[in-house]
Specification:
Length: 122
C-alpha cells in the first residue's frame, strides 16, 4: 500500500468511521453504481474523504447527466466493493480534479482487498 496511509481522514478514533464519498449514478435496480475508470485494463473507483473534494472532481469530469456525490459509511462501502468485485480491482483515494487518474502522481491506487481490510481494521 505504498503511497497511501490510513489516517483520521478515513476513520474516527472511535472506530465508527467518517463517511466516504463516491461519484455515483442510480441504476434502474436501485443500485448506486459508482463512477469507474480503467487503469491498465482494470477497474478503479475513486473514493474521497470529503464531499467538497468529490464535488470538485465530479465538476472536472466530462460526464453525462445523472452523476452525483453520495456519502457511504464504511460498512456500505465495503458492501459496495464486494458487490463490484468482478468490475473493480483498485481504489484511488482522493484523486486530483482535472487530472487523469492514470497520471495523477499525488495519489496511488490501493488494491480493493487492502482497502477493505483497512476499513475493517478501524
Amino acid at each position: 500500500m505504498e503511497g497511501w496511509h490510513v489516517g483520521t481522514s478515513w476513520s474516527s478514533e472511535e472506530g465508527r468511521g467518517f463517511p466516504h464519498y463516491l461519484i455515483t449514478r442510480p441504476e434502474p435496480t436501485g443500485f448506486a453504481a459508482p463512477y469507474t475508470f480503467f487503469r491498465n485494463g482494470e477497474g478503479v473507483v475513486a473514493v474521497f474523504c470529503s464531499e467538497g473534494a468529490a464535488r470538485r472532481y465530479l465538476g472536472s469530469l466530462a460526464t453525462k447527466d445523472g452523476w452525483s456525490v453520495r456519502a457511504f459509511s464504511a460498512g456500505e462501502l465495503i458492501s459496495l466493493l464486494f458487490a463490484l468485485h468482478e468490475r473493480v480491482t483498485w481504489v484511488l483515494p482522493n484523486p486530483s480534479p482535472g487530472v487523469s487518474p492514470a497520471k495523477d502522481g499525488r495519489s496511488s491506487p490501493v488494491g480493493r482487498d487492502d482497502f477493505v481490510v483497512s476499513l475493517l481494521g478501524r
